[in-house]
Design goal:
This protein is an alpha/beta fold. It is built from 6 helices and 4 strands. Helices cover 52% and strands 14% of the residues. The protein has a 4-stranded parallel sheet.
Length: 106
């Protein structure tokens, strides 16, 4: 299995898949990203779990948050940098895909 990119939709986070894909230097994006309030509470209540989630999400660039509230939770509760979260789809097409122009031109 040798993908050019991995696109995750909503909140399907598969840790092994993300880790292996990231290790292979394959770009990973999360579209319509969301976590329920319950999931955020569980992930953030225990420091090692919060660090694990933060690492998993750090492998995703960009993250397109479902709502402004979810963007805020990702930044404040989990620690995802604001420049990794995209609220405007036009930025995905522009800035973030330009990082991988070689993939686009093939």
């Amino acid at each position: 299995w040798r993908p050019d990119a991995l696109l995750l939709v909503e909140s399907e986070l598969w840790p092994s898949l993300i880790a292996e894909t990231h290790a292979a230097a394959v770009p990973i994006a999360l579209v319509n990203g969301r976590l329920s309030d319950r999931a955020v509470a569980r992930w953030t209540s225990f420091a090692p779990a919060r660090r694990s989630l933060a690492w998993l999400l750090s492998c995703l660039d960009p993250i397109l948050a479902q709502t402004p509230q979810m963007e805020q939770q990702l930044r404040q509760d989990i620690g995802i940098p604001a420049d990794q979260i995209v609220r405007d789809w036009r930025l995905l097409i522009g800035d973030h895909l330009r990082k991988n122009e070689a993939l686009i031109s093939e």
